[in-house]
Design a protein that fits this description.
The chain contains 15 helices and 2 strands. The chain has 431 residues and is an all-alpha fold.
Length: 431
């Protein structure tokens, strides 16, 4: 069987924008944990560190879709550099405040606008969708981006923490800021792969026409909520894995548990992207959701770090295919003129789910131990299946009986998306 990823990168400019996009998306994985490490090192207050990091994360969740909406309206070239500039200057101000002992309110005042960094995972996926719309290679591209997301959230936090602890406390966020500026400045000049600005489409159901936000589309709201549920599982694995390893007197084993999830997800994403599937995307989503839910149950049976790592690896095998199916559905159900915003909403949903999972599972662990945390993952798995079930009929209807992700002409909803000149496109990643 031919290597689908080799064919993917034959398009002129694809290697360049993919590499630049990876550099520019690393800061999303580095900044939050970098802020926590920086402030815990300099102030010794974990509560303040967590609160400032939470303000930054919430800001990215709120501002990200709005920035992407501007991208859809004015283009990547005209939007990304100003957004990056706001984030870089604000993060720089935050670092100066930390260095010079500014009051707590100043830290929050800087952290909020620092969240204006653009969602580069969505920008990269928008370029793949522009290159390979109605082409089997788009399925491989979305799968590849899911793997890149996993790599980003494995490498990014480790680099940030290492820099903060090995050099000076501000080193992690400083490196994230520099990478954001470098990546965006390398990404924006690549004009030949930049998606064109398309006029708003007519009515496409669910209030998606005209200049309104993409989140008014019912299918997009459903897919975003689905990824919130998936994100809760990811956030729970992170927190409960650490608590379980400590309970087993193997604190260092927490990294093995968390890495096992990412490795399983990345491996399945590569395999899934190489398959030529004939199953409709809504059905693939349901299968992935059921597999994800069922594989949370072994968490409750783990009696060692090794057995938990094995259970987490198994669960990770279902995460990337579920994520890729959701991104494929966004590609089929969101009009091209709202592509980047639609992608950003579902990625934001994932981020919100991760934060929610970490918070809720943390409270459950305090009350009931690691088992209480894993019960949160089980509950999220049930919610994931229910949302996938609810979405079957409307998603099948919106995708024109949903051709397979690898079939040419898979986007059969040109009428729903607007007209022949405004094809539906979509998502990504991840984390």
């Amino acid at each position: 069987m031919a290597n689908p990823y080799g064919a993917l990168f034959r398009a002129p400019g694809s290697v360049a924008f993919s590499l630049a996009g990876y550099i520019a998306r690393l800061p999303m994985a580095m900044a939050g944990i970098g802020i926590i490490t920086m402030l815990s090192e300099t102030r010794g207050e974990y509560g303040l560190a967590g609160a400032v990091a939470a303000a930054f994360t919430l800001s990215t969740a709120l501002l990200g879709p709005q920035i992407s909406r501007l991208v859809d309206r004015f283009g990547q070239g005209r939007t990304l550099i100003p957004a990056m500039g706001v984030s870089v200057l604000s993060m720089g101000a935050l670092l100066l405040c930390v260095r010079h002992g500014a009051p707590a309110w100043a830290l929050f005042a800087c952290a909020v606008p620092a969240g204006a960094l653009p969602n580069m995972a969505a920008m990269v996926r928008a370029r793949w969708a522009h290159l390979y719309r109605d082409d089997p290679r788009l399925h491989s591209a979305l799968s590849f981006e899911s793997v890149v997301d996993e790599l980003t959230f494995v490498v990014g936090p480790a680099v940030a923490v290492t820099l903060c602890t090995a050099f000076f406390p501000e080193a992690g966020p400083l490196a994230a800021t520099a990478l954001l500026a470098l990546g965006v400045l390398l990404f924006v000049p690549q004009k030949r792969t930049e998606p064109p600005v398309l006029p708003p489409t007519g009515g496409s159901g669910g209030g998606s026409g005209g200049g309104g936000s993409a989140i008014r589309i019912g299918a997009l709201r459903l897919l975003t909520l689905t990824l919130v549920a998936g994100g809760v599982i990811v956030g729970t694995v992170d927190v409960a894995g650490v608590a379980f390893a400590k309970e087993q007197n193997m604190a260092a084993g927490a990294g093995v548990v968390i890495s096992a999830y990412a490795i399983g997800s990345a491996a399945s994403g590569l395999v899934f992207g190489a398959l030529e599937l004939k199953t409709p995307l809504p059905r693939l989503l349901l299968l992935g959701a059921v597999g994800t839910a069922l594989t949370t149950l072994p968490f409750l049976l783990a009696d060692s770090v090794r057995s938990l790592a094995a259970a987490v690896f198994l669960a990770g095998l279902f995460f990337s295919p579920t994520m890729i199916s959701i991104m494929g559905l966004v590609e089929r159900t969101v009009p091209a003129a709202k592509l980047t915003e639609g992608m950003t909403w579902v990625i934001t949903g994932l981020s919100v789910g991760v934060a929610l999972g970490a918070a809720v599972s943390g409270a459950m662990i305090d009350a009931y131990g690691p088992t209480g945390g894993f019960l949160v993952a089980v509950a999220a798995g049930v919610a994931l299946v229910l949302l996938a079930l609810v979405g079957q009929r409307p998603l099948l209807a919106r995708t024109g009986r949903a051709k397979s992700p690898g079939a040419p002409g898979g986007a059969e909803i040109a009428g729903a998306a607007g007209a022949a000149g405004a094809e539906p496109v979509g998502r990504a990643g991840a984390l």
